Amino acid sequence: MQPEYIIIHQQVAPYVAHIQLNRPKELNALNLQLMGELREALKVLDADEQVRVIVLSGNEKAFAAGADIKQMADKTAIDMFNVDQFSTWDTIKKTKKPIIAAVSGFALGGGCELMMLCDMIVASETARLGQPEIKLGIMPGAGGTQRLTRAVGKALAMEMVLTGRLLTAEEALQAGLINRVVPTELYLQEAIKLAAATASMSPVALKLAKEAVLKAFETSLEEGLHFERKNFYLLFASEDQQEGMQAFIEKRTPVFKGK
Ligand code: CAA
Predict the structure, then answer these.
(1) Which of 5, 198, 203, 207 could form a disulfide with 34 if both were Cys (CB 3.0 to 4.6 A apart)?
(2) Of 67, 101, 157, 175, which one is the catalytic site residue?
């Protein structure tokens, strides 16, 4: 079945797929259907050999303005518990291939949390990022208190979560929350460019390297170093390692196969 709230663009650059959130009238508010469609699309692209990197965007006005407030407004705690909307996010988190967020306009609440689930973030100069849930009498529920704090530190995370203050793209860049800020007309193009550069690397090395970086958020330094070393050694079982090193020695561009 065709998804209703996302658009999948295949091969926007070699080995790069692009998923666009597409509920523009609601500023891409993340209702259950949209999140379900996103989860399924990521599962399919994660298994597709023709895809090595995924770009996730909204539109110029909004990456996503958060979880769908209208869908949540009359829910009880038990409704929320039974529906367990954030379990979808756990599946998205398991995507092995790198995901690059292309963010313009609002990335708020769940939108900011979705952005932070991505591995690199290219923002337009108009991007406004934050966790305004406190203004609704709630708090972030999809990782905002944890991923934001790890990214920007306690002082700024507290201010954003407790007052709902939004960051400009420039502030987010200074705080280390995003990778780069570009003129609005270029944000998607730049994200695809970054994705294409990433996709030219060995896909198997990309997955194991992503896994190792993410491990740094979950574990002690000692365990993380151990994990990194195992992934490093594992790559010596890949044809891509042989190709990468041989190409260096022969002074040519490697051709990686993901094997
Ligand atoms: N949920 C549902 N609908 C939303 C929405 C959301 N998060 N954000 C915007 N919309 C809807 C608006 O209700 C409006 O719909 P109607 O035309 O039917 O009235 C439409 O999108 C356009 O929005 P605005 O008219 O409000 O546009 P604006 O440019 O004046 O303001 C905005 C933009 C500042 C982003 C404002 O829409 C806003 O504050 N949105 C809510 C942001 C928010 O609080 N997000 C957190 C949600 S909770 C959450 O995400 C929990 C979690 O941790 C997962």
Answers:
(1) 5
(2) 67
Contact (CB, 8 A) for 116 and 100: no
Ligand 1 in contact with 65 (CB < 6 A)?
yes
Coil, strand or helix at 55: strand
Q: Is the CB of 98 under 6 A from ligand 1?
A: no
Ligand 1 pocket, residue 140 CB under 6 Å: yes
The residue among 122, 103, 112, 101 whose CA lies nearest residue 30 is 112
Q: Which CATH superfamily, name and number, covers 203-250?
A: Lyase 2-enoyl-coa Hydratase, Chain  A, domain 2 (1.10.12.10)
Helices (H), 48-153: 69-72, 77-83, 87-93, 110-117, 144-152
What pLDDT was estimated at residue 62? 98
Give residue 1's pLDDT.
Answer: 77
Instruction: Return the pLDDT at 45.
Output: 98
Q: Which of 110, 111, 130, 143 is catalytic?
A: 110
Q: What percentage of the chain reaches a pLDDT higher than 70?
A: 100
